[in-house]
Design brief:
With 477 residues, the chain is mainly alpha-helical. It is built from 21 helices and no strands. Helix 3 packs antiparallel against helix 15.
Length: 477
């Protein structure tokens, strides 16, 4: 490598160190601000002209948000509507209603897997807590499980929700990586599902069976349990939810607002179905046909999420007694919750563009090729370290994507596997500087050691298993 290449790599090292320091310093600078500051400093240090640097920042942030922002906003609104209307509650109860005690962790996994498609990790966990607490409390009273029933049912939910959040579009991290690496949407979703299923099984119900007896003392605060189980047991005069048994097997499950289970499932799967239809059309149909064009359009992430949102709006209007003002307020609140994520994604896009325009991206590609590093492992490792040190999976994903992008030609199986690997890397070593860690710790009444054995270990298992699956599939690339 030339001296100039070494200089650019040194600048990148300093930039990443500065980013970590700014986010974790006493000032606790917001990741968006830190990303912009570091991007400007990196561009100037690399010799990019000031006028061009401003354009890089604008193009990077605007381009990334243009591809991801609208889809993310629609997904947040869809998830909120499904939650408020009771659709996700109906889906969860439908999946668990006919299960035996031994099968409950697997059914919680299935419920979390489906619910996690349109929802963020934190939102999905909060939606599932009433169900987890209600069933766990009854298992505890009946002595139907070894160890803590809250851990037995909580770990599968954590595994499924985190896997989907990090490894599958239309979640913001994978969607951002997919856009930056020019990966095919349909292929990425298929690869993501193939990698996600064994990952969720091993990190979820399998690990839960092992760890629950070792954390038998874990139990949430009684007031919190009463709050969640009370809400799930008696809402609007509905019958209480009971532990699945033979006598309830023939009960028709509807949501708290009277929404049929079939419609609840449809509402969740509309966006995913449209995206998969697009992949099918591009695979088996002539691209000049009218049907292929229509399915390709409907399968665009923005259009698919919009279709899911409109379906959920209709479901809310017809199946609930909520007013228009209440629905509008819910949609507004859902956008407030993702404002920070959108800013971080935009800042990450700006940083990525500066890396490319300043020549640092090419220097990284040259160094990696010279060292014969596996690009999938490299992408996973960069995302893991940045997520660990900054406390933000999104920062890990967008920064790793910007660093890895010059090494990939775009499209194909390798790009899709990289999306999965980078997303998996961002999940690992989830600890005290991550919001999700504290949500799990406080919700389940754990101390730091117990939370580490659940949240940190589960998400690290998901991270390592996701990488292993990506590497296994890479033999076909």
């Amino acid at each position: 490598m030339t001296p100039h290449t070494w200089w650019l790599l040194l600048i990148l090292t300093i930039a990443i160190t500065a980013l970590i320091y700014l986010i974790n310093s006493r000032l606790r600078i917001h990741p968006f601000v830190a990303l912009i500051v570091v991007a400007v400093g990196t561009g100037l240090a690399a010799g990019e002209p000031a006028a061009k640097l401003v354009g890089s920042l604008a193009d990077g942030a605007g381009g990334t948000l243009g591809d991801v922002g609208i889809t993310l906003a629609l997904g947040a609104m869809l998830g909120r509507l499904l939650s408020d209307s009771g659709a996700t509650d109906a889906l969860a109860h439908a999946l668990i209603d006919r299960s035996s005690t031994r099968g409950l962790p697997w059914l919680v996994t299935a419920a979390a897997f489906v619910i996690g498609i349109p929802m963020f990790f934190e939102v999905g966990l909060i939606v599932l807590l009433p169900l987890i607490f209600s069933v766990a409390r009854r298992l505890e009273a009946q002595g139907g499980s070894k160890g803590s029933p809250y851990v037995l049912l909580g770990v599968p939910a954590i595994a499924a929700l985190s896997t989907l959040h990090g490894m599958l579009p239309p979640h913001p991290g994978p969607l951002t990586a997919m856009t930056g690496l020019h990966a095919d949407l349909g292929l990425t979703m298929v690869v993501g599902f193939v990698c996600a299923v064994p990952t969720v099984i091993l990190a979820g119900p399998v690990y839960a069976r092992w760890i629950a007896p070792r954390l038998s003392e874990v139990r949430p605060d009684e007031a919190l349990v009463a709050q969640f189980t009370g809400a799930s047991q008696s809402v609007r005069g509905k019958s209480p939810v009971s532990v699945p048994n033979a006598s309830s097997a023939d009960t028709d499950v509807t949501s708290r607002s009277g929404i049929p289970t079939g419609l609840a499932i449809t509402a969740v799967l509309v966006p995913v179905g449209l995206m998969l239809l697009r992949t099918l059309a591009e695979t088996v149909l002539d691209e000049t046909s009218t049907v292929a064009s229509a399915l390709t359009f409907l399968g665009e992430p923005v259009v698919a999420m919009l279709a899911g949102l409109l379906f959920a709006l209709g479901l809310t209007a017809l199946g609930t007694d909520r007013t228009g003002e209440e629905v509008r307020a819910s949609l507004t609140d859902s956008l407030k919750s993702i404002a920070a994520i959108l800013l971080i994604i935009g800042g990450g896009g700006a940083f990525k563009q500066v890396l490319q325009d300043s020549g640092i991206g090419d220097a990284i590609a040259s160094a990696a090729k010279g060292a014969h590093l596996n690009v999938i492992v490299l992408g996973w490792l960069i995302a893991l370290l940045l997520s660990l040190t900054t406390g933000s999976a999104t920062v890990g994903i967008v920064s790793a994507t910007g660093i890895i992008a010059p090494m990939v030609s775009g499209g194909g199986l390798e790009a899709s596997l990289l999306v999965v690997a980078i997303g998996a890397g961002s999940l690992g070593l989830n600890y005290v500087n991550h919001a999700g860690f504290w949500l799990v710790k406080e919700s389940f009444g754990m101390d730091l050691t117990q939370a580490t054995k659940t949240q940190t270990v589960v998400q690290t298992l998901v991270s390592v298993l996701g990488l292993a699956m990506a590497l296994l599939l890479s033999v076909f690339a």
